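for the writeup, i need someone to sanity check this before i put it in the appendix. the sequnce is what the collaborator sent (i think, or maybe the updated version? ugh). structure was predicted straight from it, no edits. if anything looks off just tell me and ill rerun, i have time this weekend
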Amino acid sequence: MKLKVLAFALVAALLWLGGTGARIVQASRTVSTRTCDAAIVLGEGVEGAQPSPVFEGRLQMALKLHEAKRVRLILLTGGKSDGDSVSEAEAARNYLMARGVPSAAIVLETGDSKTTHGNLTEAKIAMQRHALTTALIVSDPLHMYRSRLMCSKLGIDAEPAPTEFSRYTGFIKRTQFLLREIVFVNYWWLVGE
């Protein structure tokens, strides 16, 4: 009897996790065509004073959206970690300005967020401060599901704009990212952050 209950629990858990993975993959393929007030770029680390390669891929997408006039402003998130010389948002601002984006088109979070939930919480504050009502979320495709769940809970009117320049390419890297997201989504459902 105990073995049957254990087997049932194991199958149920695998189905649940598989369903979560399927929702993440489906969300990664959804791309908004909407024009919005801002692109919220989720931070992803710095190397020295430069955006990490993953973060750079997100910034390239934000630049593309801005050049296409799909967004008026680019809202940059990400705090400063121990040992970094600049915050993620500051490194991102410098990167975009070096590529011709005027400072008037860039908004930085003023907090010190280091997680997706923190990035979006700070983005909401910045949106309110600048009277922005709609946004495109810019991150890696497999990060879209969790990001949009958080936006919904925070009351941010956001549409997906997954980067076309993701560094997570190839089967192994994408699978690792997907497994990580399955864990993070389920953790967020349990804990709420």
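The helical segments are 2-28, 53-67, 88-98, 116-129, 144-154, 171-191. Strands lie at 36-41, 46-47, 50-51, 71-76, 106-108, 134-138, 157-160.
thx in advance!!
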